[in-house]
Amino acid sequence: MAQQVRGVIARAKGEPVRIETITVPDPGPGEAVVKVQACGVCHTDLHYREGGINDDFPFLLGHEAAGVVESVGEGVTEVAPGDFVILNWRAVCGQCRACKRGRPQYCFATHNAKQKMTLADGTELAPALGIGAFAEKTLVAAGQCTKVDPAASPAAAGLLGCGVMAGLGAAINTGGVGRGDSVAVIGCGGVGNAAVVGARLAGAAKIIAVDIDDSKLETARGLGATDTVNSRSGDPVEAIRELTGGFGADVVIEAVGRPETYEQAFYARDLAGTVVLVGVPTPEMRIDLPLLDVFGRGGALKSSWYGDCLPSRDFPMLIDLYRQGRLDLDAFVTETIALDEVEKAFERMHHGDVLRSVVVF
Ligand code: APR
Ligand code: ZN
Ligand code: ZN
């Protein structure tokens, strides 16, 4: 039986979101219905409602979530009703050229549920990142459910579903930070601070946090940054060089998504160092760098989608580290809110007051 639940809907570009009744079908083959327990508010949700992703309104927002599998459709073997899961937007296909080369984290054909959730009048909804978890229940592909230790707090665990995983993975997976490395992180919001934590987990000896907001830098210090730089009070490239014996950092992670901070990252790394772009730029942004510097400085310029994570590999492992007290996911939950407070959370996010607001059901 299809079920009626409440969900946060963006009806039109720029319009405030509102709660509406949605219909969640029973899971078909390869699908699962998940009772959502917590869902973080991410920039991408705001981008959807501002029309920055595409025009497929109405959207069912929310995609950074954890919950319990309620029912599964035919042929589902990877999860069962009652499993505690983190939802992911990288359900890998196993068939594409990336998967076949043994690099499923780059899967080019990830999948979502085939059936549509709808508004009460039958209008089909477009779920954010194929998830749509600002809803009491949501329909996803079973591969989007990653089973983890049920002792984890849903609010903290759900954050691995997007932003925190992006930051952790930018350091650990994409940047390949190793023991003894020097790392600089430019932009210390939820994503950048997760990169700080990732760098620490990976054994970095020096972790330089860079932001324009002292309160973000203070948080970064609490999470493991060894040095902080406020780029309002001087050239951050010079500051990073000074802190690294005049050379620059081995890995610089850009977690803002702007040309000027990318350029800082480019010049703040040591020769043969690595730049990781995890901040998401907008379509009109351009960079202009001397090609000779790109060549002459060597190293690697990489971008990091979803922290190059493989959910089935990374989520259970990171939740285990969290449970052992080695990964402080709770630090990213600035506030827990109710489902009808998402619009307010967008405002707080816009003002930079929070690492994450998390809707708890
Ligand atoms: N230099 C340094 N830091 C900056 C600058 C700058 N010029 N401009 C902004 N910042 C800082 C902000 O002060 C803030 O702490 O960057 C941080 C951005 O953090 P959030 O707005 O909380 O965003 P977050 O969720 O961390 O995402 C960062 O990654 O996933 C993408 O779309 C997301 O592009 C965004 C980026
Ligand atoms: Zn694939
Ligand atoms: Zn997100």
TrEMBL record:
Task: Specify the taxonomic lineage.
Answer: Bacteria, Bacillati, Actinomycetota, Actinomycetes, Kitasatosporales
Q: Which family does it belong to?
A: Belongs to the zinc-containing alcohol dehydrogenase family.
Query: What InterPro entries does this protein map onto?
Result: ADH-like_C, ADH-like_N, ADH_Zn_CS, ER, GroES-like_sf, MycoS_dep_FDH, NAD(P)-bd_dom_sf
User: From which source organism is this entry?
Assistant: Streptomyces lasiicapitis
Protein name per the record: Oxidoreductase
Which superkingdom is the protein from?
Answer: Bacteria
CDD domains cross-referenced by the UniProt entry: Zn_ADH_class_III
Which residue intervals define the domain Enoyl reductase (ER) in the entry?
A: 14-359
Keyword field? Metal-binding, NAD, Oxidoreductase, Zinc
Q: Which cofactor does it need?
A: Zn(2+)
